[in-house]
Write a structure and sequence with these properties.
heterodimer, A: 122 residues, Arc Repressor Mutant, subunit A, 4 helices, 2 strands, 70% helix, B: alpha+beta, 49% helix
């Protein structure tokens, strides 16, 4: 098993959810998304962001509009569509389920070790 | 120092170092290629380009006027190279559920489409963008993903055969401008040249100092020149002997250089220089100069916008190909420090006469190639004709049955397989059939079997010459009145069949035997006639027959089967024109020594018609016999002269008057 591989797999799963979350909060262009992700300490290769946004757009989850920029070419500002909102909510519920579940499993591990002797006594 | 160019990138004018521009261009090309399989791939690339333009903009805002290699590198590393996000990218296909069925399919199909794509790329074309004659070599090289120079060298070396392949491919293949698909190539180096930059390019390619290839090219010329001048001074030059040979070396060095000059392209653009030196080397060489002149450059950067004529392309992505050296703005003159030798500029003072020399070389090269090609056509036909002439010779070496079939197997496999495979390959390529490695593997295996069989046969044949043997036969001539023996030739009266090549000097192959009219015997003229002193008062004739064979028994048997009937008519001795042997012997270097022993005080004259009897018999067994038996040395004599044997030597009886 390659540790880097596993790590990137873990990160990948939540990447889409994070991006949608950022866009949902505020209309955002890719530069914002990258900055926010970096500030939050999540590594993101920009080269993977663009195809992902493109696909989400093609699937009508995202919509965008052009906004003139002072420091360069016009930017694509992304927003969630209605379908995107639903999609996000589904993802959110999955995430909550997943994160609490994962937490429990990890904490449960420790509990189990403590509980096991008690259980056997009873 | 570096050249700075202005580009219009996503609607922004950006001053960028030329090397940085090349890096950027390559990077965007790689992205394009990568995303081309994606729906809306162009849009993705465009988004990324926008992003890069924005990052450039940010840097320019910070007061950095010019985009450098480092800037581009850092941007590339933050966006990532295609190989970095390959795994992520693939996984998104699975992870992303909105178009799940379709997406999944496409994800599974990806390897397949990729292979089709590469199949398409691997079609064979004539390369229009990189050619010397018709771009055939370059197209082939592209197909095999090698440097075109190697393909050209192969074609030059195997000109006689591959010339026809070249012609066929020229006709069959469609021209197409192909992007080079090798990262490292051999170029002529315009920045490091003495004549054409061939040595400089070789040095850059192999990462050695330029003087090494230069020395290799110059040494033969120089040594010969030294040799010619210094003959009286240095006697050791005599060991080098033979000037013709040395001149050949000189000529070949010149020819090799000229050929390389023609077939190796010159590195003109920065991209080509990168391919020539390797990226790191090139950047290093630039960096060295940059660090030398860092202060200079810094002071000038502020002004860069003023003196750099803005070159406006419609966009780096669309128009990148057009940005070549010619289109680039000229080097700002104030920016050239006196000692900067390594830079991207190609213009130099003496290029005019050198390029004229280059054109001259090309003209000569093509003229020679044309003449040579015509000559080759003639040669090929001549060889075909001559080849059939040699067929009867086959039976001299090869027995019917096993060996014969082995011969044909070898010939077919060795010669037919490559020709057939080349034709099959060309046909399949031009019909764009999918490549099937099985065909190649099978033909290689068959060809190897051919080599093996030919080698086996070679050993078999060589084996037949393993052992040498000889048989001695002494015959005393009947006594006759008079004291002079006249030796003449008894003509072979019947017809015989001789081999001849029908071309070249010395058409007749004297060493090979002739066939008799009913092909039951072989006639040999490999005879050596010599005269010795007789040990008694009689004339004697001794014949030593010699032959090679697979083993001693066979060799001995061969010699015993020779027939060489001597005829004596009183004082006239007639020697047969040929000695004959059964045809079953084949050619085993049969030879014969005829030794006439003359008693003291007697005369002898050999007719001039026998002057062909002067062959060298190299048979070791014969030499042993001669050494053992000879009490007197073979004597000197000439044809058509009367000699008398006195004091163990032959003396002319008639001394020519005009020699006094």
């Amino acid at each position: 098993m390659n540790i880097e591989n596993t790590q990137s797999q873990m990160r990948k799963g939540v990447l889409e959810y994070c991006i949608l979350a950022i866009i949902r909060r505020n209309e955002a262009y890719p530069g914002d998304i990258i900055d926010e992700m970096k500030n939050a300490g999540l590594q993101l290769l920009e080269g993977t962001l663009y195809p992902l946004l493109n696909r989400l757009k093609n699937a009508e989850i995202l919509n965008y509009r052009w906004v003139e920029s002072t420091s360069g070419p016009p930017r694509k500002y992304f927003t969630l569509t209605e379908k995107g909102d639903k999609f996000y909510e589904l993802l959110e519920s999955t995430w909550v389920e997943l994160s609490t579940g994962v937490d429990e499993v990890i904490k449960g591990n420790y509990k189990k070790e403590e509980n096991e002797p008690n259980n056997s006594e009873q | 120092m570096k050249k700075v160019i202005n580009i219009n990138f996503q609607g922004q004018v950006i001053a960028i170092e030329e090397t940085a521009y090349e890096l950027l261009k390559q990077y965007i090309e790689s992205l394009k290629k990568y995303f081309s399989r994606e729906e809306g791939g162009e849009e993705i690339v465009n988004d990324i380009e926008n992003r890069i333009a924005e990052l450039f903009g940010n840097r320019l805002k910070l007061g950095i006027n010019i985009i450098t290699d480092e800037d581009v590198q850092s941007i590339i590393s933050s966006i990532g190279r295609p190989e970095d996000f390959d795994a992520d990218y693939q996984d998104f296909d699975y992870a992303y559920g909105a178009k799940s069925s379709q997406q999944k399919d496409s994800a599974y199909e990806q390897p397949k489409t990729e292979s089709i794509e590469s199949e398409e790329q691997r079609s064979l074309y004539r390369n229009e963008s990189d050619r010397i004659i018709a771009g055939v070599c370059s197209g082939l090289a592209h197909y095999f993903k090698i440097d075109p120079v190697w393909m050209r060298i192969i074609f030059v070396i195997l000109f006689s055969v591959l010339f026809w392949v070249y012609l066929i491919l020229w006709v069959v293949l469609k021209p197409k401008a192909l992007e080079t698909n090798v990262t490292k190539r051999l170029y002529r180096n315009p920045n490091d040249r003495f004549l054409g930059g061939v040595c400089g390019g070789i040095a850059a390619y192999f990462k050695i100092d330029t003087w090494i290839p230069r020395l290799l090219f110059a040494a033969p010329l120089f040594l010969n020149l030294m040799g010619m001048i210094s003959i009286p001074v240095f006697p050791w030059n005599r060991f080098l002997d033979n000037w013709d040979f040395n001149w050949n070396i000189n000529m070949s060095v010149v020819v090799v250089y000229a050929v390389l000059w023609v077939i190796i392209p010159r590195a003109n653009t920065v991209k080509q220089k990168l391919e020539m030196m390797g990226e790191e080397e090139y950047i290093k060489s630039i960096r060295e100069t940059v660090s030398d002149n860092v202060a200079n450059v810094k002071s000038k950067t502020d002004e860069s916008d003023n003196y750099t004529k803005s070159y406006v392309a419609t966009g780096i992505a669309d128009n990148s190909e057009k940005v070549t050296m010619d289109a680039l703005p000229p080097e700002p003159p104030r920016n050239i420090p006196p000692k900067s030798s390594v830079n991207a500029a190609t213009g130099s003072g003496n290029s005019g006469c050198l390029s004229a020399l280059g054109i001259l070389f090309k003209i000569i090269f093509f003229a020679f190639a044309g003449i040579f090609a015509i000559a080759m056509t003639g040669m090929l036909i001549a060889f075909l004709v001559a080849g059939t002439k040699f067929v009867p010779l086959k039976s001299l070496f090869i027995e019917y049955g096993y060996e014969n079939s082995m011969l044909w197997l070898s010939v077919i496999l060795l010669f037919a397989i490559p020709i057939v495979s080349i034709i099959v390959w060309i046909v399949r390529r031009s019909m764009k059939a999918k490549s099937r490695p099985v065909i190649g593997i099978v033909s290689i295996i068959l060809w190897v079997i051919g080599i093996f069989s030919a080698t086996m046969l070679g050993f078999k044949i060589a084996e037949k010459f393993n052992v040498e043997s000889s048989t001695e036969n002494v015959q005393a001539l009947t006594s006759f009145t008079g004291n002079k023996l006249y030796v003449d030739m008894a003509d072979y009266s019947s017809d015989y069949y001789s081999f001849s090549r029908n071309f070249g000097p010395g058409s007749d192959l004297d060493n090979f035997p002739y066939y008799t009219i009913n092909e039951d015997s072989l006639l040999f003229s490999n005879i050596k006639l010599q005269i010795v002193q007789s040990q008694d008062s009689l004339y004697h004739v001794r014949t030593i027959s010699s032959s090679s064979g697979k083993d001693l028994k066979i060799a001995k048997q061969n010699t015993e089967q020779f027939t060489y009937p001597l005829q004596q008519q009183d004082s006239l001795l007639l020697l047969p024109e040929f000695f004959s042997a059964p045809i079953s012997q084949g050619f085993r270097v049969q030879g014969m020594i005829v030794e006439i022993a003359v008693p003291t005080g007697k005369k002898i004259e050999i007719d001039e018609r026998l002057d062909d009897y002067d062959n060298f018999i190299s048979n070791s067994s014969v030499r042993r016999k001669l050494k053992k038996s000879r009490k007197t040395e073979a004597l000197d004599w000439d044809y058509g002269e009367e000699y008398i044997l006195e004091n163990g030597d032959l003396n002319k009886t008639v001394v020519l008057t005009d020699s006094i």
